[in-house]
């Protein structure tokens, strides 16, 4: 199971989301971690750059267990988010741009 859309990820996560659609806790199983990363990536706007603090704030809003470093790292490893080499800027990683290329 490898969810490719936010709707599919939400379905996979099911009871791991609260009534407001926030992720209750970080899943222990890799399959659910991927689903959580896809689900959270959908909260970012395509074509927009974010500072690290903006990413943290957005992730804290959708994952109240407050571990934005874990979430950022996972989303970058899953190639859902891209970032500058110094980690100061983040954006949704389009499939057709090499890692480290900011949005146009």
**Which sequence of strands runs across the widest sheet?**
1-3-2
Count the DSSP helices.
4
Tell me what portion of residues adopts beta-strand conformation: 5-15%
Helix percentage range: 25-40%
Number of domains: 1
Report the sheet with the most strands, covering strand number, pairing sense and barrel closure. Answer: 3 strands, antiparallel
Uncertain runs with pLDDT below 50, 5 residues or more? Answer: 96-101
Classify the secondary structure makeup into a structural class: mainly alpha
Question: How far is the N terminus from the C terminus?
Answer: 32 Å
> Average pLDDT, to the nearest integer?
90
What is the assembly state of the chains in this entry?
single chain
Overall geometry comes to globular
**Strand-and-helix sequence, N→C?**
HHEHHEE
Radius of gyration: 13 Å
Number of strands: 3
């Amino acid at each position: 199971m490898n969810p490719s859309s936010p709707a599919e990820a939400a379905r996979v996560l099911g009871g791991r989301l609260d009534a407001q659609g926030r992720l209750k806790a970080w899943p222990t199983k890799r399959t659910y971690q991927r689903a959580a990363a896809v689900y959270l990536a959908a909260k970012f706007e395509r074509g927009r750059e974010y500072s690290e603090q903006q990413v943290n704030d957005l992730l804290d809003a959708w994952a109240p267990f407050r571990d934005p470093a874990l979430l950022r790292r996972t989303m970058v490893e899953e190639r859902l988010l891209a970032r500058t080499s110094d980690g100061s800027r983040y954006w949704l990683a389009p499939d057709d741009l090499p890692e480290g290329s900011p949005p146009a």
